[in-house]
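Hello Y.,

Per our agreement to keep a running log of every chain we model this quarter, I'm adding this entry. I've kept the format consistent with earlier entries: sequence first, then predicted structure.
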Amino acid sequence: RDLVHNRTNTEYFDAMFVCTGRVSHPFIPDIPGLQELKLQRPGNVISAKEFRKATDYKGQNVMVVGGAFSAYDIARQLSYTTNRLHVSMPERDHEKEPPCLDGFNKDNLPVIHPVIKKVDTHLVYFTDDSYIMMPDTIIFATGYLYSYPFIDNTNPLAMACSQIDPLQSVRCFTDGHNINDLYEYLIYIYNPSLAVFGVPFNVAPFPLYEHQAHFLAHLYKGEVKLPSFDKMKEMWEQLVIERPGKLLFKMGLEQIPYRNSLMDMIQEQVKDECPTSKRLEYVTEESQWAMRLKKPELHLQALGYGTKF
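Predicted structure for the entry above:
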């Protein structure tokens, strides 16, 4: 649709790549009292996507919600500018071992709390029955939703290719937290002409995208063949069992065998040399980004932890 001239036209393509990313629609948990708080105190609750610089919160009492890299990065910066800093994270993230506070302001280390149970205009209550006075700002670094408004999520069969039995039960394309039925985290099984980039997280994004793009180039040139529909479905269902819930697309070091498996399929099926193939190499756990995942202190150093803001 041409939004400038308000015109709609239809075009046909052999394949479609969805490359819109996964960090445009922040996920904020449905916490009792939170919607009322937003209405009563506009600007009191924001997402990590809205965070710009720590000096915007100078002298405030701030709580960061989340236990992954974004939450740590934001909290570390805020430790140098806020009056009091709190961090709420799932118990599993800090019960196994204390949070790594390297690079934080030692004079303003965050107070670690469990998950938020509820809020009102004056207090924040946690699942261990403790509570604190309402901070000036709450920053949710709690991830993002998969959102593809241009795909008819209510009618998944509408996207299925003609070979699919119309009576077959097909799950919705996405529930926001996961995407369903992707072969190799990339190809929509019910219609292999649709590919979705950037679905996995906790990865080195651009190297992973390059391997995905390289694989798709050979696939849509007809040089790489996909397994049968039944085989792809079997592989997907096994993956869902092995990696339930949020683990489904959380790769970490699993991106190493994943990227190498894409290379294997190309090497096994493509006989002619391709100029771009010379640029891509197999991945090892000794690569710089892999070492950062295995040793968080290297990630902290790379981010410049210890620098004041």
